[in-house]
What we know:
By secondary structure, the protein is an alpha/beta fold. It has 8 helices and 14 strands. A hairpin with a 2-residue loop joins β2 and β3 (78-82). The longest helix has 11 residues, at 238-248.
Amino acid sequence: xPWRARRSREQPLEPAGDDTLFEKSIxxxxxxxxxLTVLGSGTSMxxxxxxxxxxxxxxxxxxxxxxRPSIMLEYAGKVVLxxxxxxxxxxxxxxKITRVDAVLYTHTHADHILGIDxxxxxxxxxxxxRLPLYARPDAAAFLRRMFSYIFDxxxxxxGLPHLELRPIDGPVELFGAQFExxxxxxxxxxxxxxxxxxxxxxxxxxxxxxxxxxxxxGLDILFLDALRHKPxxxxxxxxxxLRIIERVKAKRGFFTHICHDLPHEATNATLPKHVxxxxxxxxxxxxx
Length: 288
């Protein structure tokens, strides 16, 4: 089965070990295993959607319960997040997250950033340093304004997250692995997806610029926005994302940012065998 998990949620992370040896193995082109966990696979309103009486919102299938979109990457004893959704607290409890070493942000919409304050207890392990957050320069400036009580306040009583904003001006090296920003169009906004090793995570896109396609060659895993079948001005459809997977020839494709129009099992039955809807808690092993 191509979607098998590497470890159960009950198994703890291995100690970080020697980062120098890890970085040396990447430099020498050796394969390093990583685990990708889908923290959330839902749209901005989540599924079930409040006040909705549709069949998916009342489904008994746990795969149809979708929190807001985010992923976690584990490698060499390190934990890297892409986005912190409003549901990060419950996602972290579910996945037993006890450490975070860095966070990458795709863009600044509420469903991708509002969990930032829940990083607070996990950031204390970085003292006297701060937990690094990486974002496009415009997104970093927005986060600084939005969460000014974190980044600009002089609050002497403690209780604030210990975070540091770092604007992205190119590929980001994190613990020996390279995260390459991929330009995407999200409605009228330009945002980032990320390529890391043999995987890429592209959420919230209505269009992938032609210049970005070369970054999607040779992928084992490709995550794409696939909100629903009906066209949307700021998101991709199932049909459009299927065309993208066919074009780049990714070995495994997963759709995320899914709304309540798509029942999990019924939709999967219509997809090619190498393409599936993502779901909360999905774990995948790949080379980083």
